[in-house]
Design goal:
single chain, 215 residues, 4 strands, 2 domains, Rossmann fold, alpha/beta, 44% helix
């Protein structure tokens, strides 16, 4: 069993690659399209390339490095002096190095056992990785997502000029049709009665049907 201290971001990529190769061996499937949601968007795009998938869909995926997103989220929550310390830790991890120390108030976020994982994650830039794909790519982003933004989707689209970019009006991060700010949305995250936005399913189905098997 892998412990937190031994876990690396590429382990998730390798798991996805193994599934793609397993499905490829199944003669029942004419094409293999990988769909990556949220953090899985980055995992999926790398795995799709490495395992030779026929197409790829990014669903509410980040278009920036994880450390940049963390910095943005923490800046509004921390006092300036603590945020300055946090920036230094993030910069050290981004350079592939272990920090000498971390802020005690952020011990949960920067616990020693998770730092190697963060280093392995921070080296990936989604906007660069999606540009390495030569298969058909679909980028979908909801306009009411409070976790990833339209800016993220636009960064992904800029990274792969041949990708199809589809914004879905009123769709949030968990693929439901909602409006409102963070406080208004959070109760709906645990509401199982809200259906997945129908147009999302239609768009993905149409894209998959259009995919041709790689020669």
């Amino acid at each position: 069993m892998t412990t937190e201290a031994d876990l690396r971001f590429n382990h998730f990529i390798e798991d996805a690659e193994a599934w793609i190769k397993l499905l490829r061996a199944e003669k029942r499937f004419s094409t293999i399209t990988v769909i990556g949601h949220s953090e899985g968007s980055l995992i999926g795009m790398v795995a799709a390339r490495e395992a030779g998938a026929d197409a790829y869909v990014s669903l509410e995926g980040a278009g920036r490095k994880a450390q940049d997103i963390l910095a943005e989220q923490l800046k509004s929550q921390l006092p300036p002096d603590l945020f300055a310390q946090t920036e230094r830790v993030l910069a050290t991890l981004s350079a592939g190095n272990m920090p000498d120390s971390t802020p005690p108030m952020l011990a949960a976020l920067f616990r020693p056992s998770v730092l190697p994982y963060l280093i392995s994650w921070f080296k990936y830039d989604p906007a660069e990785e999606i540009g390495k794909l030569t298969v058909p790519v679909l980028i979908i982003q909801g306009t009411t997502d409070i976790q990833t933004s339209m800016t993220d989707a636009q960064a992904l689209a800029a990274g792969n000029k041949s990708a199809k970019f589809v914004p879905i009006e009123g769709m949030n991060h968990i693929l439901k049709e909602v409006s409102g700010d963070r406080l208004a949305q959070l109760p709906k995250y645990s509401d199982p009665t809200l259906p997945v936005v129908p147009v999302l399913l239609d768009d993905i189905a149409a894209f998959i049907k259009s995919v041709q098997k790689k020669s």
